[in-house]
């Protein structure tokens, strides 16, 4: 009996090793990992995902793209996944698989260079010209159609809109508990203490990778229960300062 058990264990290990060696590399659409102004939300999400996928022996490749294009390429089968999206995307696009354990809690924050500007809710934004990163759905869907909007092409351009007086304020998506952007502070821009919205963000894969997503979710659940997710976030915040 022991010989049989030993043989079965050896076969199991061989299969596990082979699957890790020959696993298909998943191409994940990302944004905010490159350039002068990296997004803290992207950096922390990448740190979490990298560790979780490593535990699965699942190779991944991050493909830096504009936010909208990343979703479009995923929907057309040109990518295997997207970094993070809001929960509602799963209902809108049933061909996608949402990994149910949130990667991050995103907060929509206000930056200003005029202390007299202090909107406390979405309705009060109608009094101002608002800048934000193009393709940020969690902002676009909340803004009233009457708000004067100015979209920035890159994260660093968001703060330039405010520094140059093109807009009255900018909305930025940041992870909960993160410090203010160092780039914004260097430009003498201030983050108010108002959180306009708090939104959980989820990793998405194409439906054909459901099995990987289910296994990844188990890893993220364990990391969340053990406190590892929070430790990774805090370490990433420190390294960005």
Summarize the structure.
The protein has 241 residues and is an alpha/beta fold.
Walk me through the structure.
- With 241 residues, the protein is of the alpha/beta class.
- It has helices at 2-22, 40-55, 67-75, 89-92, 137-140, 155-163, 182-186, 210-226, 228-240, and strands at residues 26-30, 60-64, 81-86, 96-98, 104-112, 129-133, 148-152, 169-175, 190-206.
- Strands 1, 2, 3, 4, 5, 6, 7, 8 and 9 form a 9-stranded mixed sheet that branches.
- Strand 1 (26-30), helix 2 (40-55) and strand 2 form a beta-alpha-beta unit.
- Helix 2 crosses helix 8 (210-226) and helix 2 crosses helix 9.
- The longest helix has 21 residues, at 2-22.
- The radius of gyration is 20 Å and the shape is globular.
């Amino acid at each position: 009996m022991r010989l049989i058990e030993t043989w079965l264990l050896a076969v199991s290990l061989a299969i596990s090793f082979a699957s890790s060696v020959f696993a298909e590399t998943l191409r994940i659409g990302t944004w905010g990992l490159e350039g002068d102004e990296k997004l803290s939300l992207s950096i922390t999400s990448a740190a979490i995902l990298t560790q979780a996928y490593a535990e699965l022996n699942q190779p991944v490749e991050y493909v830096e793209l504009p936010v909208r294009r990343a979703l479009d390429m995923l929907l057309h089968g040109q990518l295997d996944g997207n970094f993070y999206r809001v929960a509602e995307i799963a209902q809108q696009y049933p061909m996608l698989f949402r990994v149910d354990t949130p990667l991050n809690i995103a907060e929509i924050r206000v930056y200003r260079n005029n202390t007299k500007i202090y909107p406390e809710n979405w309705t009060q934004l109608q009094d101002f010209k608002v800048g934000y990163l193009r393709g940020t759905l969690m902002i676009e869907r909340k803004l009233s159609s009457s708000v004067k909007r100015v979209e920035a092409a890159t994260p660093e351009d968001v703060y330039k809109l405010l520094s140059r007086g093109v807009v009255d304020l900018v909305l930025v998506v940041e992870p909960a508990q993160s410090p203010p952007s160092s780039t914004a502070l260097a430009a003498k821009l201030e983050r108010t203490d108002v959180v306009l919205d708090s939104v959980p963000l989820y990793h998405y894969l194409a439906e054909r990778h459901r099995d990987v997503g289910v296994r990844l979710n188990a890893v993220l659940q364990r990391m969340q229960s053990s406190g590892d997710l929070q430790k990774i976030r805090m370490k990433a915040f420190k390294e960005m300062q």
